[in-house]
Amino acid sequence: MITKTRTRLLLLWAILFVPGLALAQPPRGPLVVSPQVNADKTITFRYLAPQAKSVELSAQFEKGPVPMTKDAQGIWSATVGPVKPDIYPYNFRVDGVSVMDPANVAFFPNERFKASLVDVPGDTPLIHAMRDVPHGSINYEYYPSMEGTTGSLVVYTPPGYDQALSKKYPVYYLISGTTDTEETFFKVGKTNLILDNLIAEGKAKPMIIVMPYGNIAARIAEQKGGSKPADPTVRDGADAVKRANDFTTDLVSNVIPYVEKSYRAIPNRDNRAIGGFSRGGGQTLRTAFNNMDKFAWVCAYSSYLSPQEMDGNFSQIVAKPDQTNKQLKLLWVSVGSDDFLYKGTVEFMDYLKAKNVNFKSLITDGGHTWMNVKTYVAATTPLLFQSQTPRP
Amino acid sequence: MITKTRTRLLLLWAILFVPGLALAQPPRGPLVVSPQVNADKTITFRYLAPQAKSVELSAQFEKGPVPMTKDAQGIWSATVGPVKPDIYPYNFRVDGVSVMDPANVAFFPNERFKASLVDVPGDTPLIHAMRDVPHGSINYEYYPSMEGTTGSLVVYTPPGYDQALSKKYPVYYLISGTTDTEETFFKVGKTNLILDNLIAEGKAKPMIIVMPYGNIAARIAEQKGGSKPADPTVRDGADAVKRANDFTTDLVSNVIPYVEKSYRAIPNRDNRAIGGFSRGGGQTLRTAFNNMDKFAWVCAYSSYLSPQEMDGNFSQIVAKPDQTNKQLKLLWVSVGSDDFLYKGTVEFMDYLKAKNVNFKSLITDGGHTWMNVKTYVAATTPLLFQSQTPRP
């Protein structure tokens, strides 16, 4: 029986909680709080699915899937941890289907998978935490890109940028990994908050950070392809090389001119850095080694070039190491000991060492993850654009 | 048998297509192109799920779910349409579980559901299309909010804002719907592109648009709650009123001062507009009617206040209609004829008419959707901050 009060409550519920979307969603029912990070650093995950037969949690701090259990309302839950403070991707497997957490707005921008993010704060705020310091700004920008297409950039400007109107800044071009987007260093890497905190501590120079989208071919196909988008499954060597070259061309010919016209950037090599993660690290090394007149600071996170590619395409870098060492104010290579690219990255380090090319390196715990990317951003940005850079 | 060439290809594949995330994902297999908008405005949706028993498409241009069929590779697909050019939310139901399209980066930011977006372009570019015109910028900002928390805003600055450094601009405060976030007017509403296009056509005045997050209580709980976030299922009348009041207080006491300090805003009522969709429309009307000294332009999209609330809380608005009509340069109310709030909104229009309060109205086809929100944004922003506003 529905009482009058109950009817009123239901009406209020209908008015206050009107979704903007009438898709086939789980029926309205109990509102679910998930994830819930508890004071003891355990995390409770919840997912409403009265009809599901099995729900599992898949999280990057766990070795494997964690079974969840269903309560009388049809809410599945699991409490895990305590978990080491950091930001982790996770999702649910519902009867074998991977889904984001519908109750969580924090998401991992990516072309191929969908994951949510859970933030476990430290007892003292971590380097990527929102602290009570002056904040820079994140700007979404469009720029004229290749083949008449419009590219998109995410650009960080440091605190005070909009006040110090005569000041110019160095620029760090920062490229995310395969299947990531131009948003990933912002939404997952928290690059803006890391810089806000490092700048507040006087550890990093105020800088502009430009985050491009790495997959030029996909964007061109989307905007130009009409009914026939380029088939991304064609991934032979020649096509991959073309895509890498296209990225470099677009960055040098379109992105940098756009940024230096639109922002108060210092337009010379000593004030340009380039870095990236995974595929973005490969794009970083290729772009830098092909444009030694453009970048003086180079950071490869969890990535490398093979000795074969170095010998074949970048002999000028290793043939005259003294010149290279003079030109590059920083060459950084870092990787996690559990990263599946660990072996290749260490081989790259050994190669540079054998060729007497100076570089700074960091080997961390962990794998090919954005937890490590945040560590590398926090470790490298204090080195950029400093007149005295420590040498290994 | 794996040949040497095949091994090389697999290695290349591993290097080029390294996901940054090793969650329990569908195994790597054929890369899926989805959605594919065809030249004839049909759309092909695809989803890889070799093990699934049933996959359906749920899209806002369809009356109900559309069955998809599986090919030999395990890719489910459906081609639908032709579809009227617009941007539509959709997702898949995989064995009854709602999932976003993993192959699509365009998503609908929301607290409670997860949907992807498909953009069907018009034969001539629609008002929200990316056109070759000067683009403004979208800025993500943090501001000091209630109870020591940090709020987030998305702010549109018009083309030329960073060049015309002595120019000041009017500001439109624009609030999204229930369960939407501060990103929804940007990512789904394409408010920035609509304004870029209207400004390029000389139809709208260059303005700053500030998009706050409507759910203050949730943010405070998240940042202050620790192990005990406020239970959002408590939705009785008093709590709902408190939440609405908190939103108004935060907007007036924190957001506006932050914006007028950080941006070149003209800080007076004639140059402040407020508008919103659904719950955001209710927040708009309450905030405006409680702060007649702050806003001269008011737009309610798909929302209304009841005659009871008007009589009870806003008698000063209707008691002296001549004064109200002089103060408000625009009061706008619009709704779709299939909107489940249609009846209440029309009742609100009738109420205003009976009370001799001037307003402009628009009744469109369609429902409580972001397709309609885009129409309303495009219809109202040309009216804002104009010295001559047409009267009904």
Automatic annotation (TrEMBL), chains A, B:
UniProt keyword Signal present: yes
Molecular function GO labels: acyltransferase activity, transferring groups other than amino-acyl groups; hydrolase activity, hydrolyzing O-glycosyl compounds
GO BP annotations, alphabetical order: carbohydrate metabolic process
InterPro entries: AB_hydrolase_fold, Esterase-like, Glyco_hydro_13_N, Ig-like_fold, Ig_E-set, Mycobacterial_A85_antigen
Residue span(s) of domain Glycoside hydrolase family 13 N-terminal: 38-97
Pfam families in UniProt: CBM_48, Esterase
N-terminal signal peptide: 1-24
UniProt cross-references to Gene3D superfamilies, sorted A to Z: alpha/beta hydrolase, Immunoglobulins
Keyword hit for Ligase: no
Record keywords: Signal
Annotated TM spans: none
Protein name: Putative esterase
Species per Swiss-Prot/TrEMBL record: Fibrisoma limi BUZ 3
